[in-house]
Records
---
Amino acid sequence: MRRFFIALTMAVCFTAQLQAETAFNERPKLVVGIVVDQMRWDYLGRYYDRFQSDGLKRLITKGYSCDNCMINYLPTVTAIGHTSIYTGTTPAFHGICGNAFYINGVKRTSCEDPDVKTVGTDKKKASSPVNLLASTIGDQLRLHTDFKSKVVSVSYKDRASILPGGRSANAAYWIDTKNGQFITSTWYMEELPQWAKAYNAEMKKNKELAKVGEDVGLYPLCGHLITDMAIASLKGENLGKGEETDMLCISYSQTDVIGHEWSTRGEHTDEAYLELDKDIARLLKTLDDQVGEGNYLLFLTADHGAAHNFKFMSDHRFNADAWKWNDTHVLEAGKKLSEHFGTDKPLIKDMLDYRIVLHKENIQELGLDEQAVRDAIVEGVLKLPHVSFAFDFKKAASAPVPEFLRERALKGYHHDRSGDIIFMLEPGYYSFGKGSSPVGTTHGTWNPYDAHIPLLFYGWKVEHGSTSREVHITDIAPTVCQKLHIQQPNACVGEPITEIIDD
């Protein structure tokens, strides 16, 4: 009898150890990351009753929802959001400080790279992740598997495709609106794969695309094309079919383009999200067929939200209006600043996402005290209408601003790329310049309408549920990585969401 119990105990211990080892090394066949550009968190509730059962509603009713996911840095813009989702860190570390920013005094777009060429088009300007300083989920997955895992990224915008994929992605594809086809760059390959060429050939036959042309981003068709390309990538690269876990990154940008043009209310936005729902349903069905339901881990989130249109808000007696920096305030502030220092040369080079970039070359040439110029700008900006706060990044520690705003601003600050002075407007006010739609919207601020985003997890070892606990956009990457039992991205500052990990 004693021998029996000893043998039984040993068997139980062995089984438990085996189960633990199996669990630790177990991974899904595929990870799918979906970013919906400019999607406010409250859209999940706004459109819930109009969603079909097998699209976004399926993710909500069968997945896990983090209902209080916040962006914890400034500014809240596309390039930063996509990067922070996949790196688990902020601009202070990953270096993507806006859709455009300055590097060594030279203005560049987030993915601009003069050392690569476009592939799939004759477009001269090419893009790559060269400006990205940190690794992503996909980078870590490839490192963990000795680069056997495949990572593919698809979007309408180059930055929304390139930055999620990371520096070691197998491929990133985005739309060349002029030629109406998906392209890439020599960072990834010298020639498009045959399956991508075949899909581009099908796009050439699309009569609706031919009709809307370069304005495709203003129509739900853009989302249909992104979904089609994602499915083509899934099948063409046999993602989720190999021995190692693969990753597919998808970003839907038509929602952002439509929002900028027509805002957060009305038929255009309604159609955009209801058609997106259909695209999500179609994608999920393909994943079920290709990889198998329960064999893939999926998350859906947004890079930022959006304010309600200022005219819509003011018509309903809210405190809101357009803040015309480019047309009015910058001219006045810049002129007064130059007059104050006795020069006609500009001392402000640019304003990007509520951050002022000094014209340091002129300041140095004129022999001015740079700190005196900084102090004068802060003083002048604070006198402008509807400005709540302004401070010099060099004096952030002593700036009279709420601590949480200071923290968000500093998390978004990179000493070489983020400008010199930051300011915040009253709620309901946003920057409005040349090209801004009077009936549209924008984003970039700390306010909940810009910073509160959806976050849904679904699929492999994800139990249905929800939490109202505050989590952050930077928590997504460490959560996925811990779920996969791989190392977090190399500049990750987020924390794993325990509700998703504890399965």
---
Amino acid sequence: MDARKVCIIVPPSPFLLDERVFPFLGPLKVAAALESAGVPVEVLDLSGYKNFADIVREHVDETSARYFGITATTPQLPAAVEIADAIRQSRSDARIILGGTHATLTVAALNYEKKQGTVGRAHRAFDRLLPYFDTIVAGDGEETIFLAVQDDAPQVIDADGRKSPRKDLFLDNTRLNASAFPARHLIDLPSYRYTIDGVSATSLIAQLGCPFECGFCAGRLSPMLRHIRTRTTANIVEEIEQVHRTYGHTGFMFYDDELNVSKSMVELMGAITALQRNLGVEFRLRGFIKSELFTQSQAEAMHAAGFRQILVGFESGSPRILENINKKATREDNTRCVALAHAAGLKVKALMSIGHPGESARTVADTRDWLLEAKPSDFDVTVITPYPGSPYYDQATELEPGRWVYEANGDRLYQQEIDYTVDTDCYKGVPGHYVSHVWTETLSAEGLVRERDNLEHEVREHLGIPFNPSASSQLYEHSMGQTGLPGRILRVSTPQKTTLSAS
């Protein structure tokens, strides 16, 4: 057994309906940090696999790793718990670490309750993690991982922000730009299915953080997720060129919260345009923007760089709802954004949500009417989920055991407490296969689901936008005579020489 070796595990994500779409860059950044420091690391990539627990059991019986780092968003948490349980059943000596968004948000919510002098669902959400994970990491993982992979590591490492107990582990701009690019060689990048305008595409993050205070958004109490940290234009372009030269990708999905929050966004677009001229290729790009910050110059620069579609979190067509969720953008801002994009040759995917305080059949109709008026090229509608770290979750009041209420401008949002370790909380998709855990004064949980389904059906029918089906989950089957897991699932690096091999 290699006493230093670390196994990084990426669970499947029901948020993506178990599709193998984008690689998760956070764990690949952690893997790159370990590799750069000479620590043997392997990545177990379970994205899209239905029988992921069987894969884990098979690998744990064979690997020399003793430290297992699992990343998880909140929708991934049930899979992460199942993975941790599978590891523990096979290896009593294993050290299991939980990092990622859910850990960060839960610790942020816990800290908020402590400051308020209350013991509520954040405490319970945190306590539910303790039987499965030896160490819980909140905040950036690139430097925190070296503290976490110690036998005497604390139960919680709170590196979430400049004022956190371990603020020395927080990545400022300088550290961010100096950090290694994601270790994409430790996954089978070509196996991910995402395309943009028919070309193979992969994910990229140009900056971290979102400074806005939307009421529904998780991360409002997380300094790491709120604080804007920027990469230099040169650093971003270097990564794009490296990915293109290594893997041939000409499609890039920018997974920043809001690209145009950065004052250097137009400059970046110009540099990407110049890179394409130098390489003699043409890129196709997608990314998220903030509607009220969107300008004609941004739109034109994005189109020149290869953007043909932008994604925008408009959320609602109701002025009342936009005010209640503290969106800042008005209905008029959102309409102007779509018009600017269309004038520049950019399609718009509108990201909408229902189930906010004050939601009613009338406000849902307002959203429908706005979509029919603005005519985006595509859209998505979800029923809202109160995640830890969001005001909907952290600032709600418990009415009775398991029932909570959040109030905004006199309007109420009622919530059922969720055990995120077991509930995948699918809040959109095929009718009859998901539920709502929230309701309002005029719409029941079942009523919100009906309103969402009817809205999606009606708008798609009127605008001629087809429903986006998901790809089916994959099953891993062990073949006779096969030795170890295939490179599509497992890749191993050595500190002396990077290798791409099945273990």
---
Amino acid sequence: MTREVINSVGIDVGTSTTELVFSRLTIENLAGPASVPRISITEKQIAYRSAVHTTPLLRPDLIDAAALRRIVLAEYTRAGIRPDQVRTGAAIITGETARAVNADQVLAALSELAGDFVVATAGPELESVLAARGAGIDRYSEHSGGVIANLDIGGGTTNIAAYRRGRLLGTCCLDIGGRLVRIAPSGSGNPAVGLVTTPIAELARANGIQLSAGEDADPGKLLAVARLMARQLAMALRLVPQDDCHARLYTNTGHRLPASIVPTEISFSGGVADLIRPGPVADPFRYGDLGVLLGQAIAEDSAFARLDWHRGAETIGATVVGAGVHTTEISGSTIEYAAALLPLRNVPIIRIPPDAETEPAKLASEISSQLAILHPESAAATVAIAFSGRHATTFARVQAYARAIAQAAEPVLAGPNPLIIVLEKDCGKVLGQSLAALRGRRDDVVCIDGVQTTSGDYIDIGQPVGAGRAVPVVLKTLVFNDQHRNNRRSDEAQYQPEWGDVPVP
């Protein structure tokens, strides 16, 4: 039996805190000696968990890249792991920090620092999934009868993911978090409101509460604001009717959970999760923000009281555990690839709808159409064409699909980038070899299987594992908050993080 152990890292740079987790993934061939190899991740073990660091900022919209670099390098040293020993994982910037002026640049630098094949991403869709998986909610739901929603409440955002019987039903993200109102000492020594973000100020104003920076921090008034925030979370789960303010609190595209999702259970992760308890509160501002009061408001909200509560395996560390332990999947074992093409990062996926893959001609037409939509100026750009492959049931049928793909993807094949095919069914090797035979070459096609995708995903494909029989795969949504991105300062393009040379710990 082939057995291989690889190192994985998770780096989470959040609104309030930064954490690292190193884990070991055990990969084995579970098939018999005379059978087709079946490569699986058989064990995931956390090897090192960092301290929880305050995310270093030069100003609210600018990450201190040099200080962040020192934090990451120091934790590598404490873990006794060098960047070149890390095979996979994820570096993710979350919450308000994902909207920083230099978030893109810092994320790219983190990826280079963290290892050979480490995903660099930001976006609430992936963050919601990582937090739920890090808290173990996906696994818990496999044995739970109803729908469970995990709310990952951090400093800047709340990421929600809903599951039923192990299946992800939907995600959403709201501008609700503990540090959206910050408290600081005033000249008189009494606490004062130091910062109020626009979404929370508008929410308060719509409900008859005027809240602004510089005023005394009134615990009663701020608890009332926290209760408004908690009630908005209940609205996101449709536990209570949604008001006129609700739509403005969603980040990114503003999509909500599908109306068909009706949670019967709830779980909480993120920094605020450890603060969810009913009052009275001795020191409501001990963290310099609204986190304690938000936790109290959630605990006392009647809408949440109607659900069954489940405590996940992780709270504040859920996202970083998800990033370090649960991002990576293994492809199927019947795959075809040119090793020189790997690793591949941040490849957009063209997902072919099921009704368009019933016939080779329909498949070719859909590929041509989507290539033109995705890259209207240059269809030769790197893309991954994804479909189920369930209709490729005979060798003759596979060959017909290969001819259709080669015809439709000719702009890609004629350019400098490889053609990447991602299948659900185990026919990747025969389809890849058929494409190679049509081309008369094997160095420009990657065809993998055993991977389920959705529209809007990006895919990363790592170096082969399991004696070359499989490859590590990470699916993600590589999206920053476009609304806030458009409002960034004009110095974004000029800012370059000062990472310098990366020393080996």
---
Amino acid sequence: MDVLENAVTEKNVLVEAAAFPTDDRVTYKDSTYEIVSKVAYLIGVPKRIFDNEHEAPKIEIYEKLDADKTARIIRHLCIIRTAIERNFKHINERMKFSYLSISSMPEYVPQDSLQQLNADGVSFIKKSSTKLSQHIVEINKLISDRINNCKKLFPLWLNWLYVKNLFLMPDGLKEEGTKAAADIYYAHLLFYPYQMYINWEPEDVGNLLYNDKKFVTLLYQMNGDYFTEYRKVSDAGSYIKGSIYEFIGSSEKVVVVVDCENSDPYKLCATLKNLDYQYTQKIASIILFDDVHSASAWRILNSFTHIPVEHMMTERVKQNKSLVDVMLIARTCQEHYKNNVDSFILVSSDSDYWGLISSLPEARFLVMIERENCGSDLKNALVNAGIFYCYIDDFYSGNAEDIKIGALFKEMYHYIDQAVRLNIYEMFTEALRATRIEMSSSEQKQFVDKYLKTMQMSIADNVAFYTPGASRDNILRALHLAQCDENESAISDSCCDKIKRGSVGNQK
């Protein structure tokens, strides 16, 4: 790593800093840094850049990815590829005239990257590779074969192909392609992010990895596309967060009351995740006032926040009349007068709650609303009363993907439980009766253990069916479809339990 760090001179750093468009702070304000931190790690940006608090990439992302073998391999392959591209002439001369290998040139090739790749079981040095360009070809092969392993690091809403292409050298599996890429890279060195090689048409855009908002905007433009979901790469500004922190900090006891009918669980989850733990730990509880017609994700919110969650499910006397507002008002008054709660964070866009706010003059309120669902009347009343409100739409929503996936799996489990019911023992008993085959109890047990308990749930053409020869883990894996292992803790285990008992079944 010292080789690359020393290669980026202080002069180059200053030139790059001066190249930042002066309006970047305005154009790309209130952005997140998660995507650019991951890209910076993978392309091999030196660790000292992450340690610098004035640079975009975050050290916590570096540490997280550095513990991931798949990410670590890509990083060090990219580091070595960049080092070879940058020092091609010198390395090539040493190989040709001094018969040295790249492992014997610490001044040009980072030895710690070579050592790390060796420790991770990856080698690109082939006995048949007599030319330096052949080493690059081998590195390109390894990156091409392994880059998809890093897909899991990026959110579903980001076009993975656009990110993937940054790592794939054009025509990089041929010597001619590597030489062409080297020429472009060396001629436009200062246009590459932190002088690390990526596959792009270099141009003076300042720091491509300035923040997430700038990066995804330019990334999509490179691919003839437009990025529109800026809410996923933006976070509430310092004024909004500071006001929330001041409200919590000056409170004796804070409770969050949520009108689930007039709020979005995913936006609220994102909001809570983007608030500093130092302040959210002072919140005594979140009380959800729910109705059967609300989003089912409310029932798993407790799995995605450290704040204690109380879920109040209200019943309807009349099917066309919800009692959520009545229950919320009554419980808020109870919390204030009986439990000495002096401050409430009300999450709802319903103007009807102004009556609650105005009737509790000694209680403090902070209101969280949704931009499109809240009328001007409520906002004007809050402003006139000096009550702070904010939009939960403004908080970074890219980290709410886990609760969305958890909610989806919970509903799919429920669907499976309702639509697919099969007891393997009843099935076997019926098969014995129909075929008139006689088996002893020991034979039946062996048959069940050998064949029935190893049946696997598979998905093909949107239809579930069983095939023999699989373990219980494979059945669980099939039911989870994708990413289930990452989200298993966030969802109900009821379906898994049914599978283990053999009660979830076959549909073909």
